[in-house]
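A favour, since you know our structure tokens better than I do. Just paste the record in under my message, thanks.
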Amino acid sequence: MLRQDKLQGGRCIVPAMTFAEPDRNTSKPVINRWFARADGAPFFLAGIWREWQGDHGTIKQPNVGLHRLFAILTTEPNGTVEPVHDKAMPVMLMTAEDVDVWLNGTLEEALKLQKPQPDDALVIAPYDEKKAT
């Protein structure tokens, strides 16, 4: 969902059920570990978007024009994510109030949401080796 009050860019949200981080404890191939809410509910990732004019295609199929790009904000990892990925985790918006503040609040209010979720709010999804290959 894009906040439409500016045509050049702004805040957005990305709905999700899970997110993945590369497991620093694995190597060649690195295995992604998936994280979900402990209660199984969906959540939103805090993002920003902007318009960009340029070529977003390939040499054979150029796609020149106005494009909307987005990025997900990150924060330091919580205790559930840190053993797997010690650099960052996405900023998760867990309530309708968080989403409203992110999309409509002041910059100061929105930036207060850029923090890790409590350790017990997330679980690591079981790794299924058969699905990974």
